[in-house]
Amino acid sequence: MWRRSLLHSGVQRVRMPSNKWNKPIFTRFINKDTARSFSSDPNALPPREKMDFDVVIVGAGPAGLGAAIRLKQLAIQNNQELSVCIVEKGAEVGSHILSGNVFEPRALNELIPDWKDKGAPLNTPVTQDSFHVMTSASSSFKIPNMFLPKGLHNHGNYIISLSNLCKWLASQAEELGVEIYPGFSASEVVYENGVVKGIATADLGIAKDGSIKDTFQRGMELRGKQTLFAEGCRGSLSELVMTKYNLREHVAAQTYGLGVKEIWEVDPAKHKAGTVQHTFGWPLDRQTYGGTFLYHMQPNLVLLGMVVGLDYKNPYLSPYEELQRWKHHPLIKNVIEGGNCISYGARCINEGGLQAIPRLSFPGGALIGCAPGFLDVPKIKGSHMAMKTGMLAAEAVFDHLTTGKEGDEATDYEHKVENSWVYKDLYAVRNVHPSFKYGNVAGFLYSGLALHILKGREPWTWMHKTTDADATKKASECKPIEYPKPDGKISFDLLTNLARSGTNHEHDQPAHLKIKSGMESVPEQISLKEYAAPESRFCPARVYEYVPKEDSTELKLQINAQNCLHCKCCDIKTPKNYITWTVPEGGGGPAYANM
Fold first, then answer.
1. Beta-bridge partners for 557
2. Is 175 exposed, middle or buried (0-12, 13-18, 19+ CB in 10 A)?
């Protein structure tokens, strides 16, 4: 097992009518008079109805859809009946998907070799690649491509919308008989005798105060012989499963980055379809890990953004404001000036590398894709690995279900990963991100050595030992950062950009952002007083703000949960980790298009 070696080195199912991605009516409706008779106590509610499947998948991203398609392919090839269901919290497939995205089609080539003939939305091949080091607000220099490691070249890749690719993958899955239920949040893991038996969707129609509304609908149990968690980075149920089965034993602490992204329509005269540009350095300081991207996608779209490592130290730093400042650099401004920003969003990514990957399988299921942390950090690419690990899990689960193997755990999945190109690629770059703990200059130099020469052959493995929350220094140890005011043309205030995300939640529902029990005093007494309220800056949706208490000059925390972009940053970076992110009612959240 890689963890130890690295550690030592350092009801009867009824098929629902298909109306493409519309919500199936599988929740239990209760009339108004009956609803009023129930309290908010789950034990007082009627039992959930159940639907049984062979495999239940949580999340319709590249991992979940890749797994579902592969399962159905194997079933057809082996003349087997296999029922597969995907539950997705977004209002439609793709609405919660956000990525850079320069897509490496390696896994897609394996999954659907004729994807071009089937109309996959990979329409902008990379034609030009450049990497720049920004030294100030007005200067930069380009690193010649001959000095860039082979893995950072993007020849053969495509600039895409991952959201649109997932929509296309969903159509391929449905053609194979996969049942996809968007608009329903998986809120609970169903266990029996210590074995995962599926998930339960969230109840709908519960008021903010916990009372039952007239619109109440009981959630549904989706039960599976195997359940695959493909929730993406920091998935709420995935985190619960890791804790219950102690899956993170013998692995390094996971560390994360926050990606903030915009899509622009630009002057066609400035647009160069297929151009990929990355930058490193300014405006981030030399102790903060991060970088930026700018991609030209057909017809005249520019996808741009910044990823900031959440192990940053200064609580005054705002990833959103750093992005706004970066856009005024001549290298960027000259491209987007005169254009129109049409979309905005944010999402956290895993940056811990191979040594932070937990045990992947457990009784009754497995973790796939970004849920356990598969991402190639130097490339800033994880979609291909998400899809591939979903495929590998599908193969292990299919074999487990159809060959009569003993036990409830598809243990072959982990072995398949260890023998795949996913493991090989991650092993080779495992020390790149940890090297930046010595500062960006040292990390940059070591990365060149590791990617050009060592290529994973070094006999050591550096482990992350602290969480991103613990990396934050107290405000008294840091210098406040003064950000320039937005001009409304190149840079924007946060709420203006937030409107471009389409995010929306039912206001009268219990808050899905919960202060952990016993930590009620942490926001005002620790986060505000000792750390100057970093959550008011790192949140890319202004969910967290401190407002005056009634009849007092003191401040209190106000959580604007309706703004949430589901980026999961608060679950990672708040002082003392005082916030737990849980799912809201299904369908709530961002409504990303082309992300």
1. 546
2. exposed
- DSSP-derived secondary structure letter, 318: -
Contact (CB, 8 A) for 229 and 371: yes
Between CA 152 and CA 380 the distance in angstroms is 9
Q: Residue type for 84, please?
A: V
Q: How far apart are CA 357 and CA 496, in angstroms?
A: 37
Residue 45, pLDDT score: 81
How is 333-364 classified by DSSP, letter by letter? HHHHTT-EEEEEEEEEEE-S-GGG----EETT
Instruction: Give per-residue burial for 424-446: e unless 16+ CB within 10 Å, then b.
Output: ebbbbbbbbbbbbbeebeebbeb
The tokens for 322 are: 């750093």
CA distance 75 to 492: 50
Residue entry with tokens 């602490």: 253
Is residue 529 within a helix (H) or strand (E), and if so which, with residue range? helix 529-531
pLDDT tens by residue, 75-134: 999 999 999 999 999 999 999 999 989 999 999 999 999 999 999 999 999 999 999 999
* 283 cis-preceded (ω within 30 degrees of 0): yes
CB 590 within 8 A of CB 510: no
199 CB-side CA count, 13 A: 30
Element (H, E) at 227: strand 220-229
Rg for the chain, CA atoms, rounded: 23
Rounded to the nearest angstrom, the gap between the alpha carbon of residue 247 and the centroid of all alpha carbons in its chain is 19
State the pairing for strand pair 301-309/290-297: antiparallel
3 state DSSP class of 256: strand
Residues 6+ apart with CB under 8 A from 105: 115, 122, 156, 157, 158, 384
375, burial (CB in 10 Å: exposed 0-12, middle 13-18, buried 19+): buried
| Number of other residues whose CB lies within 10 A of the CB of residue 523 | 25
Q: Of 64, 36, 14, 30, nearest to 370 (Cα)?
A: 64
The predicted-structure confidence for 319-371, as pLDDT tens digits, reads as follows 999 999 999 999 999 999 999 999 999 999 999 999 999 999 999 999 999 99
Residues shown for the chain: 595
Of the CA atoms within 13 Å of residue 559, those in its CB half-sphere come to: 18
**Angle, CA 542 vertex, CA 536 and CA 546 arms, to 5°:** 45
One-letter identity of residue 487: D
DSSP state of 508: S
- What are the structure tokens assigned to 29, written together? 């409706």
**DSSP 8-state class, residue 523:** I
Instruction: Read off φ and ψ for residue 305, nearest 5 degrees.
Output: 180, 180
pTM for the complete prediction?
0.93
Helical pair 421-428 and 383-402, crossing angle rounded to 10 deg: 140
Name the token pair of 435.
Answer: 């090297």
User: What region, left, alpha or beta, does residue 281 occupy, with left being phi > 0 and alpha being psi -120 to 50 degrees?
Assistant: left
Alpha-carbon distances of 172 from 166, 175, 231, rounded to whole Å: 10, 5, 20
